[in-house]
Each structure stands twice: as C-alpha cells, then as structure tokens.
Amino acid sequence: MDFIKTYAEQITDTLNNLLTLDDVIELIEKPRFNDQGDLAFPCFSLAKQLRKAPAQIAQDIANKIKHDLFEKVEANGPYVNCFLNKNMASQNILQTILKEKSSYGSLPIGKGKNITIDFSSPNIAKPFSMGHLRSTVIGNALANIVEKCGFKAIRINHLGDWGTQFGKLIVAYKLWGNEEKVKEQPIKELLSLYVKFHEEAEKKPSLEDEARKWFKQLEEGNSEAQNLWKWFKDESLHEFTKIYALLDIHFDSYSGEAFYNDKMANIIQLLEKNNLLTQSDGAQVVELKEYDLPPCLIMKKDGATLYATRDLTAALYRKETYQFDKALYVVGQEQSLHFKQVFLVLEKLGYEWAKEIVHIPFGFILKDGKKMSTRKGKVVLLEEVIAEAIQMAKKNIEIKNPNLENKEEVAHMVGIGAIIFQDLKNERQNNIEFSLEEMLKFEGTTGPYVQYTHARACSILRKADHKRQAQITTALDDEYSWSIIKLLMDFPSIIEKSFIHYEPSQIAKYLLDLSKEFNKYYSHVKILSNDDGLEGRLSLVEAITIILKEGLRLLGLKAPEEM
Ligand code: ARG
C-alpha cells in the first residue's frame, strides 16, 4: 500500500483535477513534528488559481477527505495534515515486508535498461590508493542500488595499465630491479623502482629519454618490453584481486586502457571526418573554446595517444557492447575537467547518448586534516589498513562477546564494514577524515553500530523462537513503534533518492536513523516480557532485521546475526 499515493489521490479528487496526481505527490511533505501528522499537503501554490487564501483551501480540502487509512485529516494554517491510521498502516507495512523480505523496496524504474559503472580502476604497478578505495566502495554501492531499481548493472574496472610510466618502470627494473623482490611484494617493489627512477632522473635527465624509448618499444610491440609489461600487470592484478576478495567486490570486465590500444583508429577517423581535429604545437586536439574549456588532447606529436583518446574509444565500445542507457564514471573530483572534455567531444560527434554519461565525483580522504598521498613512496597500503581494522574489530568483539563462536569471520565482516560505512555515510563530494578508531566504535554513527543493532534484533528473534503468523493482529500503538513504522514505510523512497542523486549516503543515514529508533524502542518497550501483543512486536523486530540487512547489503556490508 502506498500511503502517499492514496493521500494524493484523495486530494486530487477534491481539487477536480486542478493538479495532476504526480504534482500532488511531488508537493506532499513529511512533517518534522508529530503533532503535524504524518503527511502534509501545502496549499500555497493553489491560491492564485482558486482565488482563495491558502488556509481556506486547506480547510476545504480537509473537510472533504475521508478514508479508512487515515485517522484524521485536518487543516493547520495553509497545510492539510494527515494522520495515518496507525493500526492499519503498521499491519500493512509489516505484512508487506515480511512477505517481500529482502526485495522490499525494489523499484521498477530501470526494468529492461542497462547501466555501466566504471569504478575502482586502479593503476598497474602503483598502490591501490585511498582514492581508489573510495571509488571502489561508492561504485559498488551504486551498482547494487541501480540493481535494486531494476536496472542491469555492468561493473567495469578500467585498469590504468598503459602509459609512459611503463617506460620508466622498464628502465628502472633493468637498472636496479630484482625478480625475486618483485614477486614477493610486487606493489611495494614496483613503487620503489618508480620512485627511484624519479630521484635518479633528476640527477641524470637522459633517463627520461631512455624511458620514452622503452615506452615507444612497448607500443610498437617489442617482445622484451611487452613481456615485462605483462609481468608487471599480472603481479599487480594479483594484489588487487586480493583486495577485491577481502571486500567481496566483483567486476564484469577488467578491460582497462591497454584493451583499447588497437581500437583507437576508429575514433580518430570519426573526428577527422567531422572536421573536429585541429593542430596545436604539432599535437592533434579538439577545440572546446565555445565551452570555455581547454582543448581535449587526442594525439601527441609523436603519434602517441592519450588518456582521453582511450576514454573516447571506451565509451563507444561500451555503448556498442552493453547498449547502456546510462554510463556512470565513479572517479575523483580532480578528474572533472577530463570527463567534461570527453563527454563534450562525444556530443560534438553527434552522439545523443553522450547526455546519458555521468561523472560521479567524490572528495578526498584526509588523515589529520591532510590529503593522503601516494607520491614520493609515502603510501599507506590498503591491505595493511584492512588487516588492522579486522584486528581492532576482533579486540572489540572479544570484550563484548568473548564466547562468540565464529569470531574470525565476524571480525572480518565488522572490520571491512567499518571501513566501507565510514566512507558511505558521508555525502560523496565531502572530504572524509580517516580514523580507524572512530569507524570501529560500536556506538555512534558507524557501520559496526548498525551491524550490532541488527545482531541485537536477531538475538531477540532467536530468544522468542516464535512461529510467524500471517496476520499481525496486535496493535502497535506506542510512539516508539510508530517512529519505526514510519521509517520502514520510507525505505523505498530512500532507495529512489539514493539512485536519483547517486548518493549511497542516503541509505547509510537512513540505516543510522532506523538503528537509533530501534535502540530507543528496545530500551523503552519490553519486547519479550509478556504475551500480550507479542506477535506484533516480533513482527516489527523481524521487519527491522530484514531492512537493516538489506540496507547494509546495498552498501556492501555483511550483517552478522551475532556479534
Ligand atoms: N586509472 C585512473 C586513475 O587512477 C582512473 C580511471 C577512471 N576511469 C576512466 N574511464 N577514466 O586515475
């Protein structure tokens, strides 16, 4: 049952179709204070058409509405406030959730449509940075969210596996490298070679020429260069895969930049045919003066292609291969200009679908107020951070629940969950402060807090060991349950909002609210102590476990039943 829609229908009827149903739905608000009811319809916008004061209009509408689902409808100044029939609404929503289980909140918006999501996309032979972690976590949540909205999600890891840095690495490896060391700790070792290259090149600039030569060899298919590149790539990918396994994140494609090496001729031809290429200092560019943007670099003097050339090629390839209706790129805000340029070039080529490509930027991760940087070898290795989080989670669990059986497994879920939630509870454009201690707290606005609430609810159900009845006959009429019921009713619209704004934080914040309300309920209402109304209370608790678990799943967190 959609309460807002029912209310909107009633209002539309009283207005003799002066507004459409959608207009009315759009206007309906959820009042912040309980004495203003559960739904409110503001009448300001009707004053002109009806030539009446908004308060009078509100009064007229209120007088005309009568429905079983509403306990009362009353005018309050220019608003028509609606109080839902708590009993009916509670029964209705709980029955729906218990029946639909984890599919409650699924929406049909994307039926038959595809969305590609380009996320994570780390650079080979470099560490998995905190920025890549953000992209990974946000992208994964968005993929889950669009699926919940009925779309088919195609998860793409656009690996940074091509570029001049490979020339530098080859030179460095040949001069100072050691095979065993690379095999032992590929990312650390390759990074230190890379750093050493830059140090040495400052003293001896000819190394740069060497590197350019080797990159050219690589592009031309020289087998020594190719083999080294392939080896670096395999070793790095192996490391990245470990991180994805820890996070339980999967991709449909790992086709990165190198994949497009033999596919770029087409886009260059197209640009030529459309007279879009101009010469600039020997390089080929697409001018974007009319948008007040610097030109998009397509080809360097020496014929080498660029990051943008690959992204243009990839966009065409993805459109053809996946027939996307929307294409999302979850990449840090520092690449905004790049994506603007790429999308505009596609538009200039006349592709209508260029409007459906969206860059989804996000802010930085800060440590003690400073940006965490991977340059100059000062890196925080993500794997180590994850291991530490799991370790700390284990300590917390040992204090809270020393007898827990599968401690290791739960510590894993909690440690990883803490890292993911800490990121997703913030609006993605904000910078976020990284503190393992903060994110692992079992109280406060953390992942473990939501997981703990879920486990607490599960433990009530275990204790009750109840047999679920189809009908929830008992009234849930205390204010604590009503706050929960209202949140449960909101879940589908939260999913929709998180999709519309590409904002997983909507769901994270919602889960925090729901947890808070449940914990209030838990401390004020004796759930198990008497049989009177037990069934209704248990249904409420079960519905909460379903929604918390599903919400956590959408964000990429597990929900242990005990912790
Ligand atoms: N590898 C790039 C980086 O680390 C991110 C790639 C994002 N995706 C894309 N299609 N450009 O900066």
CATH topology name of one domain, in short, is Isoleucyl-tRNA Synthetase, Domain 1
CATH superfamily of one domain: Isoleucyl-tRNA Synthetase, Domain 1
- Briefly note the structural class of the backbone: alpha/beta
Spans of at least 5 consecutive residues with low confidence: none
Strand-residue fraction? 5-15%
Number of DSSP strand runs: 13
| Average pLDDT level | 93
CA distance, first residue to last residue: 35 Å
CATH class designation of one domain: Mainly Alpha
Give the distinct bound molecules.
arginine
CATH architecture classification name of one domain:
Orthogonal Bundle
Detail the topology: elements first, then pairings.
Elements: H1 3-14, H2 21-27, E1 39-42, H3 47-50, H4 54-64, E2 70-76, E3 79-84, H5 86-100, E4 114-118, H6 130-148, E5 152-156, H7 165-176, H8 179-184, H9 186-203, H10 206-219, H11 223-247, H12 265-273, E6 277-280, E7 283-286, E8 296-299, H13 307-322, E9 326-330, H14 336-348, E10 357-360, E11 365-367, E12 370-371, H15 382-400, H16 407-424, E13 432-433, H17 436-439, H18 447-464, H19 479-500, H20 505-524, H21 534-555
Parallel strand pairs: 4-5, 4-9, 9-10, 11-13
Antiparallel strand pairs: 1-3, 2-3, 6-7, 7-8, 11-12
The structure holds arginine (ARG).
Keywords: Aminoacyl-tRNA synthetase, ATP-binding, Cytoplasm, Ligase, Nucleotide-binding, Protein biosynthesis
Domain DALR anticodon binding: 450-563
Subunit structure: Monomer.
